[in-house]
Amino acid sequence: MSHYILDIIYIIGALSFIFGIKLLGKPESAKRGNFIAAIGMTISIIGTIFLFNSGSAETIVHLQNVPLIFTAILIGTIIGTIMAKRVQMTQMPQMVSFFNGMGGACAALISLVEYHHVSTLPVVDGIPAMETGKAIVIYLGLIIGSISFAGSMLAYLKLDEKIKDKVLPFQQVINVGLMAVILGIAACSIFGWFVIPNALYLLLAISLMYGVLFVMPIGGADMPVVISLLNSFTGVAAAFGGFLYDNKVMLFGGILVGSAGTLLTVLMCKAMNRSLLNVLIGNFGGGANKGEARAITGNIKEITKTDAASLMKYSKKVVIVPGYGLAVAQAQHICHELEQQLEANDVEVKYAIHPVAGRMPGHMNVLLAESNVAYEKLMEMDEINPEFKTTDVVLVVGANDVVNPAAKNDPASPIYGMPILNVEEAATVIVMKRSMKAGYAGIENELFYNDKTRMLFGDAKKSLTELVAELKNV
Fold this sequence. Notes:
Order of helices and strands: HHHHHEEHHHHHHHEHHEHEHEHEEH
Radius of gyration: 26 Å
Shape: globular
Low-confidence stretches: 120-124, 284-291
Strand content: 5-15%
Strand order of the largest sheet: 5-4-3-6-7-8
Largest sheet: 6 strands, parallel
Number of domains: 2
């Protein structure tokens, strides 16, 4: 009877995941969707703990471990709650990478533990013999989970600016070689072609090394793609764990995460007009392929805050382009106040969101939604690009490569071919930056030297605050 109840609980849990993901599509319902999915996962966990019955001595051991299980859940809940409450919205990409890494680690540990539990034949030469299908699942779960863990932890450190991009000599040759070694060891162990002592632990070590080398050269502009890809890795690894345990909800959840992460990765690559292979090999933003970009001519022209405020106040349409500089300065709230002040003067205001404007997919949307910016004002690149020709003023706040015309004009540029926001088509462009420092691609921005462009140097939050004050006084 308990078996049927557990199956029903798993169905409810799976449906809650689907419904929750659906609600995540809109900011106003995202919190509710997250809560519903969390409730589904909670009842699935409780059902597994109390209704699992293998009909063997393992069940008794399982019940004896219940206090330990709940102790671990309590510790994890406390740590997770504290981290979630303390994290700033600007640090959300780091937290996503960290938690994703924990998921990959769990999947790898499952493979390590279950390796010795699924033996169906006596141990031969120190290697437990097992069904080929289960062996494939265990080895793939270990490999993918380990790569996801190591890669996510490195991504976390890079996003937190504790580690810089680094490209080793023959980086891609090393990566391809390591992957060939990983697959070779796994194949020999699974099919018994050759006895490799401690093959599982050797695979663990090499997979962790590959995860580090896989992410190390990836530049900042490609990090959203890498984070999506690593998320899909963790989902696939979790699905393998579901196979091992014959746990439907774990399998279903892993498939959802894996497929969603893969789809998002493809969409991000499409938005940048690049293939996934090009992202992983090209190292855009990592300094590996800057080319011989053409010389930029023209002069930098600055603008005062008073003149900028006057220009925007007497405009009909203003488009704000937020970049990661806005997130770093935590200027999203004052940016919304600027929007409200302009609208009070009958100025139409919209936001132009580039797919890689933040450090992870959707980062900028969430950041602005937190500041109560209306969702319908957040325009994606394809929607807003045709409108720049009818825009009086574009205010670029902390963005760089995503508005660089070199992506269209300079075939030698490392960002050539990447779709950008066509801000140069507006009547006037005001760029707010701390300095003339290059963006993640490491190249100068042609936009800054455009005759229509005016530079407003300074901290984004401070400058926006002063702009709001000027608007009130104009």
